[in-house]
Design goal:
mainly alpha, 2 strands, globular
Amino acid sequence: MEFFGPGVSSLTADDCCVVTNMAPEYGAITGFFATDVQTLRYLQRTGCTA
């Protein structure tokens, strides 16, 4: 399931992770948010970038 729209930009990367991890609860296999600046900051903050 892909999430999009004006409300997505108000979510933090942490919020997007929570929503994505809840996929089984809303009947999806996975959730997807497009990569944005928030995502890149999250990856840097958590040490997931090279």
